[in-house]
């Protein structure tokens, strides 16, 4: 498939789903690539948890922390969220690596902020810089980001997030003022993890395992409904935003890093077409990379 034909199919898929989309996909081994707005600054939302994961393992590889180190998580002060520790009622004690599992598998905001308190936001940005992610930056922890949304929404709180005028003033949705990256930066990070360039092989394998345990099948994985194709990824969601980055691995050894970021004018929390187009677009891009 020609680059022009691939671009046209991607544009049509995004338009049919009612979203604006940006994508980058790369063959991890050959470097062949497909892009649609690959260098567009985007809000990462929970996709930035991948950067936290890599930082944690980088520090462990350097001997700065032990992944079996135990952390306490009392009920008070937890970062809000519908999953994992954020939704639990009782005190919890667990290791850093199990905290990372919750952060990645169910996008647990409390787990992410526990890890950020341990490694520090500056360390996350240093890791991104070391890996050449020149347009990737963490500005907030996840609790802080949610706080800005409450402040920007005003006295009506969550109810205001259905108002398009309120949406336009949220700092969390402005790449210039929040955690940000580009599709190309994210595939570069994924490639570094899969080639054991981000961390030594032992730690790379640990990260790949955790990413392979993500529970959400409705975005990237939906484009590859085959028992012998493995998808490992990380989603990210905020009002009007739906994202996922991940790696698709075929039984013939083909490995493809894919980053898809979308935005829609619709403020509804449930938009199945906007979720599904992430898988559709990823499949178009990977098929183009695999074409003879």
From TrEMBL:
GO terms for molecular function: beta-lactamase activity. Gene3D superfamilies: DD-peptidase/beta-lactamase superfamily. It holds the Pfam family Beta-lactamase2. The keyword Transcription does not apply. The keyword Hydrolase applies. Keywords: Hydrolase. Residues 23-262 form the Beta-lactamase class A catalytic domain. It comes from the Bacteria. One of its GO terms (biological process) is response to antibiotic. PANTHER family: BETA-LACTAMASE (PTHR35333), BETA-LACTAMASE-TYPE TRANSPEPTIDASE FOLD CONTAINING PROTEIN (PTHR35333:SF3). This is Serine hydrolase.
């Amino acid at each position: 498939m020609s680059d022009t034909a691939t671009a046209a199919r991607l544009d049509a898929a995004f338009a049919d789903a009612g979203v604006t989309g940006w994508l980058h996909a790369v063959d991890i081994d050959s470097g062949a690539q497909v892009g649609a707005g690959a260098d567009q600054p985007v809000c990462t939302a929970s996709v930035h948890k991948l950067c936290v994961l890599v930082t944690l393992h980088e520090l462990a590889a350097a001997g700065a922390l032990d992944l079996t180190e135990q952390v306490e998580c009392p009920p008070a002060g937890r970062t809000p969220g519908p999953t994992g520790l954020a939704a639990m009622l009782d005190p919890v004690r667990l290791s850093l690596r199990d905290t990372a599992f919750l952060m990645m598998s169910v996008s647990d905001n409390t787990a992410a902020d526990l890890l950020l308190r341990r490694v520090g936001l500056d360390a996350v940005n240093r890791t991104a810089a070391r890996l050449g992610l020149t347009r990737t930056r963490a500005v907030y922890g996840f609790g802080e980001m949610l706080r800005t949304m409450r402040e920007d929404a005003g006295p009506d709180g969550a109810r205001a997030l259905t108002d398009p005028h309120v949406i336009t003033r949220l700092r969390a949705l402005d790449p210039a003022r929040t955690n940000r990256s580009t599709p190309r930066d994210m595939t570069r990070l994924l490639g570094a993890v899969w080639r054991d360039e981000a961390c030594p092989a032992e730690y790379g394998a640990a990260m790949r395992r955790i990413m392979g345990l993500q529970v959400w099948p409705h975005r990237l994985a939906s484009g590859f409904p085959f028992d012998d194709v493995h998808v490992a990824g990380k989603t990210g969601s905020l009002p009007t935003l739906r994202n996922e980055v991940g790696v698709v691995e075929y039984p013939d050894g083909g490995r493809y890093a894919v980053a898809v970021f979308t935005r829609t004018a619709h403020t509804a929390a449930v938009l199945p077409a906007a979720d599904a187009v992430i898988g559709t677009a990823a499949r178009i891009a990977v098929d183009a990379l695999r074409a003879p």
